[in-house]
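Exercise: predict the fold of this chain.
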Amino acid sequence: MFYRFVVSCLKHLKFFDETCEICKKEYFFVKGLEDKDGVIIDKNVEESQDKQSVYKEFTEEKAKQLYEKLFLYYLKKFKDEKDASNKAKSIINKQCHIRNIKPWNWI
């Protein structure tokens, strides 16, 4: 493993001064940022975008169970079956879209 040593600013011990180059470098290092051609890049965001999200299996059976629970929840909230049904179906649709699954006919 390689470790980077950061030079701390000896003038500004209790705060980062935006006009001090050493303070800027130290601040960027602490925050995980990188300055490339005047554009600040967050290294943590770059790394998270490289990782592909892995979702649990979403079968039609699980979707129906989720729909039932969501429908009952939104029925209590909206007091209207049509609104509750539409809201539950939209959530199932989003889950299908996230997982690149074609929504089922009943949605």
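Check your answer against the key: Residues 60-98 form one domain.
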